[in-house]
Amino acid sequence: MEQSDLDPTAFAMVADTYMQEADMIFHNFGINAFNVSSVTDTGGPFLQVNAIDATQSDHPTFGPSGSLYFLTGHAIELYLKAMLIKNGKTKADLKGIGRDLEKSVEATRNIGVSVPNADLIIAFSEIHRGMEYRYPQAPRVNVMVPEMLFSCAKDLKSVYDSMG
Predict the structure, then answer these.
(1) ∠ CA(120), CA(124), CA(126), 5° rounding?
(2) In what order do the strands lie in the sheet with 46-51?
(3) Who has greater pLDDT, 110 or 133?
């Protein structure tokens, strides 16, 4: 196996920190982390939320939830990349993947590592890549059920930790 020019432990440690911060946000604010006027269950892994200030601003906000999703999405990305680095992938390899979680899942599977909740991670990929939570564009957006997203990250951490 080729030696990577990156440290997988550093990637995983940053991911752990992001998850601790996201968990703190969710547990301190609960559903109020969304700063929303309404939440609609879509029957899948996503909720539809309406920003409270959508009628008062051209730039609706979603309270602390933007941070929650940004941090958790980035943690998922870093856990996947830590696994890839551990298996010899280089900085150039990771640049080719970019922020695309679907490509990260595919690359991780291609090195023989099982990716738990891959379907949910792939469903979240476009939103993560486009950073919709960082830059909300509309008063109504779909957000992944936080517990489902946390589960994806925690399961990836377990897989990474089991790789020794």
Answers:
(1) 140
(2) 36-41, 46-51, 140-144
(3) 110
Query: Which pTM does this prediction carry?
Result: 0.82
Give the pairing of strands 140-144 and 46-51. antiparallel
Nearest by Cα to 13 from 69, 68, 85 = 85
Whether residue 105 is predicted with pLDDT greater than 90 in this model: the reply is yes
SS3 36: strand
Angle between helices 65-86 and 118-130 (to 10 degrees): 120
Q: What is the pLDDT of residues 49-73, one digit of tens each?
A: 655 444 444 444 555 567 788 899 9
If one counts every other C-beta atom within 10 angstroms of the C-beta of residue 42, the result is 11
- Only one residue has tokens 């925690």, namely 154
Q: Which two tokens stand for residue 94?
A: 């990771």
DSSP assignment, residue 33? G
Residue 46 Rama label (left phi>0; alpha psi -120 to 50; beta): beta
End-to-end CA distance of the chain: 16
Alpha carbons 46 and 159: distance in angstroms, whole number = 24
Q: If you search the block for the tokens 């730039």, which residue do you land on? A: 59
Longest dimension (CA), the chain: 57
